[in-house]
Amino acid sequence: MSIGTAVPTKEELSQAKHHFIQHKSITEDYNVGMFERDAIECIQTLFKTRDIVIMVGGSGLYIKAITEGLDDFPEVDPSIRENLNTKYSLEGLSSLQEQLNFLDPIAYKTIAIDNPHRIIRALEVCLGTGLPYSSFLGKKKETRNFRTISIGLTAERDVIYEIINKRVDIMMEEGLLDETKYLKDYRHLNAMNTVGYKELFNYLDGQCTLEFAISEIKKNTRRFAKRQLTWFKKQEDIIWFDHITPVEEIINKIETQIVEK
Questions:
Q1: CA-CA distance, 54 to 46, in Å (whole number)?
Q2: Are the C-beta atoms of residues 200 and 180 closer than 8 Å to each other?
Q3: Assign residue 92 a region: left if phi > 0, alpha if psi is -120 to 50, beta otherwise?
Q4: Residues in Cβ contact with 151 at an 8 Å cutoff, skipping those fewer than 6 apart
Q5: Range with lowest mean pLDDT among 94-98, 110-114, 155-159
Q6: What are phi and psi of 76, to 5 degrees?
Q7: Choice among 51-65, 135-149, 150-164 with the minimum mean pLDDT
Q8: What is the helix (H) or strand (E) element at residue 240, kind and residue range?
Q9: What letter does residue 111 receive in the DSSP assignment?
Q10: How many CA atoms lie within 13 A of 193 on its CB side?
Q11: How many domains does the chain have?
Q12: Which of 70, 86, 92, 123 is surrounded by the most beta carbons within 10 Å?
């Protein structure tokens, strides 16, 4: 999934030691809770030999898992998620949204309602515990033994969307369609329910033209970016910079923050 998930280039990987890049097979079950456990273990090891560790990413929930810790949810029967994934495939997202609104109106109003992963996660907790998903939120979490400085890059929305559109075109030029053909037999896996692949699967199934599939990738990526912006704009501790800000200026700000903290 190198192209579709924008894996750093060999040159980028050689410039600094990276972690959690293609370290799991798409056939393995992996979730944000497992990531929290593995990443914290890695961070603690890194802190034995250095004072500063840099985490880069776009998924707000995964970042929160490291900086703040996740809410503690009980284990639920894996078959519940399988059934929900089947329901999503057969009936679509609206059916799951209606079910969550019935079981947990609070969660329905607070989570990313257009994100199937979040909906399915909330539903499996509701169905597996008999309690609302929202009842497990906001409890005291484990305190981290490190401090965090959060830096965000931003741009005008039309600039972001233009960059996204160009990025999709570049991915297609680099061979995203061939990569999708190679992965077609694995399309049932949760890891493949990803923007870029699912649209091209529809094209390979003859459900649309390639031109339409590409336009859908761009549209759905823009929607994903909009959700990211909404999430991060709510974080009061993020220091924002325009995406064209000189790197030196950002580094100076970080160094100032380190001294002040």
A1: 11
A2: yes
A3: left
A4: 238, 239, 241, 250, 253, 254
A5: 110-114
A6: -130, 160
A7: 135-149
A8: strand 238-242
A9: S
A10: 13
A11: 1
A12: 123
Mean pLDDT of the 55-72 span: 85
Decide: 157 and 222 in contact? Cβ < 8 Å: no
Show the tokens assigned to 224.
Answer: 């994903």
Helix (H, G, I), strand (E, B) or coil at 154: strand
CA distances, 136 to each of 20, 123, 129, 130, 139 (Å): 28, 13, 11, 12, 7
Handedness of CA 73, 77, 80, 81 (dihedral sign): positive
SS3 category, 58: coil
* CATH label of the domain that carries residue 105: 1.10.20.140
Share of the chain above pLDDT 90, in %: 65
Expressed as residue numbers, the domain containing 105 is: 78-136
Cα-based distances in Å from 147 to 115, 140, 227: 30, 18, 26
Query: Of the candidates 128, 72, 75, 70, which has an alpha carbon nearest to the alpha carbon of residue 103?
Result: 128
Residue 104 domain-assigned? yes
Is 85 inside any structural domain?
A: yes
What pTM, to 2 d.p., does this model score? 0.77
